[in-house]
Amino acid sequence: MKLSEIDYSNNFNDLDIDLKNFINTDNHVVFLDSNLSSILNLDENLNIFEIDINESTKGLETIQKLWAIMFDQSLDRNSKVIGIGGGVLSDLVGFATSTFKRGAKLCLIPSTLLGMVDAAHGGKNGFNNDYGKNQIGTFFIPEKILICSEFLDSLSENELNNGIIESIKAGLLGDRTILDLIYVDNFMKNIDEIIKKSVKVKNIILQNDIEESNERMFLNLGHTIGHLIEKDSDFSVSHGQAVAIGILKGLEIAETKYHLDNNVKHQFEDFLNKKSLKTDYKFSGDINYLKEIISNDKKVSNDVIKFVLIQDIEKPILIDLHINDLLEVLING
Ligand SMILES: NC(=O)c1ccc[n+]([C@@H]2O[C@H](COP(=O)([O-])OP(=O)(O)OC[C@H]3O[C@@H](n4cnc5c(N)ncnc54)[C@H](O)[C@@H]3O)[C@@H](O)[C@H]2O)c1
Prior knowledge:
Bound molecules: nicotinamide-adenine-dinucleotide
Number of helices: 12
Order of helices and strands: EHEEHEHEHEEEHHHHHHHEEEH
Distance between the termini: 42 Å
Largest sheet: 6 strands, parallel
Radius of gyration: 20 Å
CATH superfamily of the largest domain: Dehydroquinate synthase-like - alpha domain
Shape: globular
């Protein structure tokens, strides 16, 4: 499957040029996260619709609003749909575009670090319903992704942490030089390089397995435990913080199972301490409750979960782990 074309810039003027080149003279709509309207001054001639989004409105109602705008603007399959925002907006716009007349042309412009290094890439999209997060979705590769690091100037520390943890994940999975760029006094001075290298790791994995039958599952490093922490804490623990603890637990398991050099964990732990991120989490739910949550994970069948570990940096492995064994590690250490 063809992956997205990606262009990089580090200021909004260059982004504007890239965006107009993509649109050309074609019929288009731009869906903009309304929180960005004061940050980004888009040309008034563009066909812009501000969308109020957050995790609680990441549902069918918002999708229906997006579809209605696309019909009202007489879009067809050759029209261009542009989504500017974080992972919530790109998931919603990605889904709405993939299902509108079976797919128009999509350009994503991620405005969060998490979006730039992860959520905008790979074509996964989705929205939440009463049965859980991202339970409805499609695989739909954007034609274009425009990454502009000027967006990061207005991003909160918490949102930057959510993204940088995904870049550390990319470093552990496929490129140790990413870790060298992050484990410094101020990783923001290296951010353009960190983003490019993280995207490259994700794209190499995607090229081999876009529909997540095997290798793409590597990208779940830290996420099985991370999602459990997010749910157990009723989402009071942020995604990045939860995944960070998930990665750390995974490194501990890998030390026991594969004699992973304990420096890998220590360096990561030092980074978390420097960023005042937590390195442990005490579950409040009992074992049966946690078992029920984990059983709903898309990667579980017959009480066995496909769990990602690294044997060494750049050497990920997928193992079958019984959920009782995983819960034992999480609850009793
Ligand atoms: N499809 C995928 O492969 C994939 C991968 C990872 C995460 N996700 C999804 O991404 C979502 C999380 O994405 P996110 O972390 O980007 O969160 P988000 O989209 O909710 O953005 C976080 C907050 O930052 C604001 N914001 C966005 N850009 C900003 C900027 N430049 N300056 C200031 N504020 C800005 C947003 O309005 C929002 O309030 C989740 O719903 C998750 O399911 C999808």
